[in-house]
Amino acid sequence: MSEPAITKLKAEIDSIISHSTTKLILPLLMLFYLEYIERNKNPVVENNLVKEGYYATICNFIRNYLHHNFNIGGEFNDTYISRLSSRHRFLRQISQRKFAVQDDYFSNAKELIRYMHVKIEEHLNAKLANLVTLKKLIEEGSSHEELKKQKKYLLSVINGNDSRRFREFLETGFDRKAENFLAMSYGFEICMFSILKIFLLKFGCRLYRDTRTYAVDKGGDISTNFGVVYQIKNYCLTSEEKFTELLNELFLNFSDGRIQQGNVFLIVKDASDGVVAQLKRQSINCITKKGVTDLLDKLNSEEKREVLISIIREFNRELLSDVCRKCKKVEKAECPYSVSIPSSASLF
Predict the structure, then answer these.
(1) How many CB atoms lie within 10 A of CB 191?
(2) How far is CA 125 from the centre of its chain?
(3) 93 - beta bridge partners?
């Protein structure tokens, strides 16, 4: 096949990877098909082989290429097969239970497999390098030289006299080329929750995330053991239109009594003075990102450490892949990528 034609296929792959906003499901499913047809030299794949083959591809990619299991693969659904046919021109349907990889992909499978390995790894590392480093430091320790440097840096951040460097760390992470903790998917909600959670524990108040966050509405709900409800919205509240939309949503979600008693708090990235005043007139409390991150000034080094552990725990809830077949079996303790929640931090 000509180079322009192969370039077009790679561009299609790039588009599918870049538009996978949560766990990379379709790219890993495509990789399974390409590896399968390359082994068998036949573009036709029976549907009954796809599910387990997809899971095996995830496990292999995690162990041999990625070396972490953030944002990689989700539970299989048969609709993903038809999506690769109807939306992406990767498969063509032969019968009800049988699809074939399109001829141009089939004839270039070997090169495209290598390309997908590189592009998937690059995509995830560009997004998640900071998160992966923090997870390794907290859950695994710092045996490698580079991790030792990162440990030294992070200890200096949390042991500082003020929290300025801690706030900068949330904005930049270890690697400025990767997405920071506040900017990555779910990051704003998770960081706001973790800071509030540890701060309010000082007063015997407990916070609970009621739902997992969703990229569509950029929001998360937090309940407490003292009657207050927090709702986190990952946007700047500056326009009248946005204010009206939000107000309608809050009155729909919460009873008038709870709002009138001042028990509903809204957390946003930023808000104009006018909008904050209007919310206050409706008995709705509004806290900006700066208002929450300023609370870090009131935390000691141990409490800042707990904020980091909470951040990793909540990212685990949102982004860890738990589809590895081996990790669901008795021998999961032998798998370095089995899903676990950190109970302690080896970093500190």
Answers:
(1) 26
(2) 12
(3) 99
Dihedral angle at the C-alpha atoms of 231, 232, 233, 239, nearest 10 degrees? 60
Nearest Cα neighbor of 57 from 76, 41, 44 is 76
Secondary element (H or E) of residue 17: helix 3-18
According to the 3-state scheme, what is the secondary structure of 109-167?
Answer: HHHHHHHHHHHHHHHHHHHHHHHHHHHHHHHCCCCCHHHHHHHHHHHHHHCCCCCHHHH
Is 3-129 assigned to CATH 1.10.10?
A: yes
> Which amino acid, 113?
I
Q: Where are the domains of the chain?
A: 3-129, 141-334
Which pLDDT score, from 0 to 100, does residue 325 have?
A: 55
Question: Strand, coil or helix: what is 297?
Answer: helix
Q: Which tokens is 316 given?
A: 């685990």
Cα dihedral 227, 205, 297, 159, rounded to 10, equals -150
User: pLDDT tens, 258-298?
Assistant: 888 888 999 999 999 989 999 999 999 999 999 999 999 99
Burial class (CB in 10 A: 0-12, 13-18, 19+), 156: exposed
Place of tokens 């708090």: 265
d(C-alpha 293, C-alpha 277), whole Å: 21
Burial class (CB in 10 A: 0-12, 13-18, 19+), 177: exposed
- What's the Cα-to-Cα distance from 127 to each of 68, 70, 177, 179, rounded to whole Å? 13, 10, 9, 5
User: Which pLDDT band holds residue 220 (cuts at 50, 70, 90)?
Assistant: low
Token pair 């973790």: residue = 194
- Which residue in the block uniquely carries the two structure tokens 């074939």? 100
Q: Say if CB 267 and CB 231 are below 8 A apart.
A: yes
Tell me which range, 39-48, 52-61, 238-247, is most confidently predicted by mean pLDDT. Answer: 39-48
d(CA 187, CA 217): 14
H or E element, residue 223? strand 219-224
